[in-house]
Structures are given as C-alpha cells and as structure tokens.
Amino acid sequence: MIACSWLQFMIHDWIDHMEDTQQVEMVAPVEVAHQCPLKSFKFYRSKQIPTGSLQTKTGCLNSRTPWWDGSVIYGNNEAGLGKVRSYNDGKLKISSDGLLEHDEKGIPISGDVRNYWAGFSLLQALFVREHNAICDMLKEHYPEFDDEKLYQHARLVTSAIIAKIHTIDWTVELLKTDTLLAAMRLNWYGMLGKKVKNLFGNIFGPELSGLVGLKEPQDHGVPYSLTEEFVSVYRMHTTLPDTILIRDIESKHKTTPQIQQEVNMMHMIGKEGEKRLSKIGMEKMLVSMGHQACGAVTLRNYPLWMRNLVAHDIHGEDRADPVDMASMEIYRDRERKVPRYNEFRRNMLMIPISKWEDLTDDQEIVEALNQVYGDDVEKLDLLVGIHAEKKIKGFAICETAFFIFVLIASRRLEADRFFTSNFNSQTYTKKGLEWINKIESLKDIIDRHFPEMTKTWMRCSSAFSVWDSDPNAPNYIMVMHISYCMFMGGRTSLFSVFLMGAPKQKWTSEEEAALKAGVVKHGAGKWRTILKDPEFSSVLYLRSNVDLKDKWRNMSVMANGWGSREKARLALKRVQHASKDDSPLALTTGDQSDEDSGDARPLPSSSGSPQIGSSKRSMIRLDNLIMEAINNLKEPGGSNKTTIGTYIEEQYWAPPNFKRLLSMKLKFLTQIGKLVKTKRKYRIASANAITENKKMPTVLRLEGKQKGSSSAPRVDKDEISVPTKSQIDLELQKMRSMTSQEAAAAAAQAVAEAEAAIAEAEEAAREAEAAEADAEAAQAFAEAAMKTLKGRTTQRLVKQH
C-alpha cells in the first residue's frame, strides 16, 4: 500500500491540468447504464489553451510544477509556500502527534491537498518530519544560517532525497528485475558505482558517473516538461484496494502483526480519513499499509468506491457532484487528444497489434474487447490497452507504459539544473550532500524516525515491498555488460538502450537530408546545435546527438568507398583509374604522372554526398594527413607509425581498415621518396631528394630501392601495367556488350585478382618488417659489442698507466 500511496505522492508533485469554468455531463448509454453506479455525472473539462503551433493547436496548462521540487509538501505558489512554513529555524508546520496540522475546516496544511486521503497525507507528514530533521542538522553545522537559508537548503535536500528514492527504490520495486535494479543505480551513480562517484564526483560523464551531477542540464533540443502520454500511463488507480486492513502493532506475533480492523477506503479519504488517521496514529498506519499489497494494474480490478467518488478541488474542498473515475479517465485521454493504443505504439516505434490475441492471452478479456470495440483494434483506448496488455515477467506495468517510464525517468534528472550543474556543495551545502548520499531507500527515512518499528516489523529490503516478505537477494548482474550494451545502442539514456532493447530504426531520406543540411549550416560535430535548430528538430526529433554522429560517419565512409572489406579490396584494384577529386583517405598503388606523383588518387564518390565529418576540421587526403602529422608532431628523428596513426584518428574520422591503409601509404610514400624511414620512424625527405625522385620513373625508383635494401619487396617492371585511356574505353565497351553471366564472371575475376594482389602486398610488407627488425637487432647487438670493447680497452689503458 505504501507503493501506491507514493505514486499519488509523486503525481501531486509533478502534474495537474487547469480546469475550465464550465461543466460537462457524461451520460451512460442505455445498454450499459444498469452496470454503472452513476447513470450520469458532471465534471469540469480541461481548459484548452492555444499553443501557436501548427501541429498541436491547443494544449493544457499544468497547475503544478513538473520539476522534482517537493511541491507536494511545500506548495506550488507563494501562498502555498507561506502556509506550510513555521518561520522558525527553517522548519515546516507539524502537529505534536507527528501528523499534519489542519486548518479550521479540517483540511490538512500541506503543499497539495487535492484528492487527499490518509495514506497520501501520511507520506506528506513523514517528509515534513524529514525536512525538519535536516533543518536541525544544518543549524548544528552552519549556525550562521538564518530561517530562510535553513528552509531553502533543507528543501533542496529533501527534494533530492525524494527523487533518489523514486529512482533507485520505488521504480525498482515496480519493475522488479535484477537488470532494472542495476540500470536504475547506473542512472544515479553511473557504471563506476557509488564509491568512485563519492571520491571523484561526476567527472566521467553520464555513462560512467550517472546523470546526477552532470556539468550542465541536457534537454536534447526540447524544453523539459511532462507530457500527456506520461500522464496517461501513470493512471494506475487499480493499485488502490477497496478496504484497508489495520494491524495491531502491540501484537505478540514476531513477523506479521494481526489484523485488528478492516476499514472501507471510502472512510479513509478527505476529512473523515484525516480524523481516522489521527485515531490510528502514524506508526500504526505505516505498519498496516506496509503489510498490505497493492492491487494489480489490470482490467476488471478498478476500485468500486472510485466509481462514485466525491472529488476535491485544489483547496481540498469536496466537490458538489460525485464522479465515476473509470469513465472520466477514458474521457480525459480523448479530450486531451492522447493517441489510441495502436497509434500510441506506432509513435513510440513499437509494433502495433493486428488482433486482440496479440494483446492478451485471456479469452474473457478478448471477448469483452470484441463486445466494446468489435474487430477494429485501432479504436482501442490507451488506458484499456495498457491494462489488458501482457506483462513482462517481474513488471507491475506493461511494456507500452514502460517505454514512457524509461524515457521520463532519465529526463527528470538530466534536464534539471538542481540535479546536474547545481548538484554541488555550494547549492546543497557539504553536509546536505552527505545527507542525500547516505539515503538509499524509503526504509532509511522511516528507520530514522521510527527505528524500533522498522527493527520489529520491516523484514524486507524496501519499504515499498510487503514488509514481512523476504529481503532481496544480492544482485550480481554485470554492470560492465550493461554499460557495453548502452554504448553499442548509441543512446545517451541508459534506460532507453539497454532495457528497451529496441532495434535502431532505419533512417529516412528526410532525416538524411536534414542531417546534411544541418552539417552545411552548423558544421560537422555540432550535433546538439543541429538538434536544437527548429529547422531540423521537427525531422530529427527521434534522434540523439550520438545517432547523428554515427550516421554522419557512416554516410561519409560510404560516400568515400569504404563501405565494406570487399569494396575496399575491389577499390584497391581499380583505384588507379579513378578521377581525381577531394575525397579523403585514398590510396594509390600504381604509377602516377609527374604532376601528382606525391598525391594519392582518391576513390570515386557520388556527387552531392557528404565528405567525412569531423568536429575539428575537414578531411584531406591520406598522404597529406601523414605529412601534417609528422610536421605537427615534430619528434626528433621522425614519428613512428603508431604515433602518426593516433594523431590522424584523433583529428579525423578514419575508415575501419585504416591501420592497413596507413601502413601501405607510408610504404608507398617512402618508395617514391617523399618520406625517409629510419629505425621505424618516418621523416619528410628534403626538397632536393623529392626532386631527384620525380625525375626517375616509378618503376626505376622501386628497382633502385630494391637494390639498396633487402627489406623492400621485389617489384618487376613486367608486373606493373598502367592502362591508357584508349585501353580503358575498350574495356568499358567490352563490358557493355557482356551478358549478365559474363559480367559476373569478369567481376569475380577482378575481385580474385584484387585479393591476390592484396595478399601479395601484405606478405611483402611482413617480410619487410621482419627484415627490418632483424637489421635493428643486429645493429643493437653491434652497438652493445662496441660499448663492451670500448670498456675493456679503457680498463687496459688504466692498468697500464
């Protein structure tokens, strides 16, 4: 029961809809009127406000604050804030029995009193006591703080505790799996865990250090708020029971207290409920609720008393007309234009149902759905669908609702500056942060104020479980595996990648066009700026900054011919015939003219395709990159291959086979005389050396190198054949006249030749490396021998002297 009370405790902190001033009447159809407690009832519509948007013309105003600011106990406006304060040492008003104070009308004095009941006001009282305990702690450590400072700091600490409990305690109990437990803790503490975060803070980013304490809030291009979809999936009144079982805490039973009284829920709401709660007492009510399970979120489980409910206005006063909450909830979703179940799933990129059997295995439910909606599954209301849907094992809610839970769970934290850039000792005080850090569950709060009660009656690990249930088993799930899955998923939200397990959606042509235009406008690497730009956000709203980065890299790689290993191999065979352009990271294996003998011939790229993106600079060709790396590194004696490769990879996007291409390019530039290799280090050759090399045909230069170095691969003149333009035209003419079988055979032969050439080149490179290693070893041995000989000669001269 504490879990469902907490649900209302959170909703009343986050969201409500401003109502219109005129009432509407809902009348039950004649066919079903005999099954309805109320044949008709009146209520107020949600007030529709023009938005100025072409897509959504009207919307509703939230009369509560959507942030985790503790407004459920502090209030949403100045009048509410002033009403709950004692103006003494920063504390809030509380009665002598530990429950809320009441005004002259019998309404609790608290931040939110709309539709209050005993279990709801019980949690409000518990956190008022927690706020006051924090004030005592702050006053002890910061005696210079006045009433206002004590109140403001205590409010921040209390709000953060509420957020933490909801994140790593309540949600875990709602979705009770080891995976969810690990992932929720990652949301707060990160992959490295609580101990590392306590030592270093959030210096490793959201994946390693969690969302709390980020350097700046993240709203992913959309201002934070809570959505109508979120409101809809949080409709879980079926968790409330029809009666509450009051327990005897003086019972001699050691584990489960005996039932003393059964009270109808109708008597536990409003002013009557407050009077009963005062008689029962706070401790007894906590134990009673702790030992009673919540109801299931499923069809045919709606509380009967809520179908003839006297609701409250925002001041806690009874409304004149009772309402049928079950009917009104369906009406609210339709009124606020929340999509029906199937459309809702499509909007969430989930697979819609095509028949009722896709939704549930319960044949009685299938028959009932047929009676209401016929065969048209598109008419199914969202609330009915998420209550009928099959549940994931361990989950109290269905997968459709879970998607929204997952998205908002992270967004509430990462978009709020008080949980990101301002989550520090300057804002919360050092002792305030320590207080927050020690809290891991609601059980810790209850134990602080009722230590004997928890020791006697709370056997479970979480106060949201049934109290006499067994403690949770240790969770041994591999956190590293979760992090790996998150990185592979490419999403910033830990939940939305690992837990959902949804496959990446294929990019549409409109999204690709928007990405290209965004890069042209803002530059590569400005992914968040592109997402925030209204010109592109309407198209790219389903994408994250990581999605944009990955897609741009893939588009750039494909545009430059690096789509696969097979394409790269085939390109090596044909690259010498390609037309020259500005495509980067190209490789030349054949002879070249004098004009561009030092440049690589690029792979062909389709016109209009984007070049490889970089958050730092535009790409140039691979040989120029090598020259740039050696020039900028300025290492004595030159730079080795690893250092050059690291420099290029840090500055530019590199294709998958970059290391092999780099090796071959370095070898080629050395052969043509642009680089000089000494002791596995490369330096740029002098201008005179390059001029001399240009005067020699490529074949002669290669043969000369072969004569002077045993490490160079053997290249015969007959093996090099550079086709002329007429030869290429002749080959193209032959290809046009080929049949499909002949073309396939020719292509296969070309691939085989390319693979053979690559294998031969790789073997030659290995032989060269081995020979060079042997030469270096011999040189080292010679140097050591010379040093030894020199030492012996010196000793002899000393003795002779």
Automatic annotation (TrEMBL):
Protein name from the UniProt record: MYB transcription factor
Spans annotated as Disordered: 574-615
Domain H15 residue range list: 612-686
GO cellular component: nucleolus; nucleosome
Listed InterPro entries: Haem_peroxidase_animal, Haem_peroxidase_sf, Haem_peroxidase_sf_animal, Histone_H1/H5_H15, Homeodomain-like_sf, Myb_dom, Oxylipin_biosynth_metab, SANT/Myb
GO biological process, one term: nucleosome assembly
Residue ranges constituting the HTH myb-type domain according to the UniProt record: 504-532
A GO molecular-function annotation: protein homodimerization activity
Record keyword Iron present: yes
Ranges of biased composition (kind: Low complexity): 604-615
Coiled-coil segments on the chain, per record: 744-781
Keywords (A to Z) from UniProt: Chromosome, Coiled coil, Dioxygenase, DNA-binding, Heme, Iron, Metal-binding, Nucleus, Oxidoreductase, Transcription, Transcription regulation
Myb-like domain ranges (all copies): 504-556
PANTHER family with a match to the protein in the record: ALPHA-DIOXYGENASE 2, PROSTAGLANDIN G/H SYNTHASE
Pfam families to which the protein is assigned, alphabetical: An_peroxidase (PF03098), Linker_histone (PF00538), Myb_DNA-binding (PF00249)
Binding site residues for heme b: 237
Native source species: Mikania micrantha (bitter vine)
Subcellular location: Chromosome; Nucleus, Nucleolus
CDD domains in UniProt: SANT_TRF (cd11660)
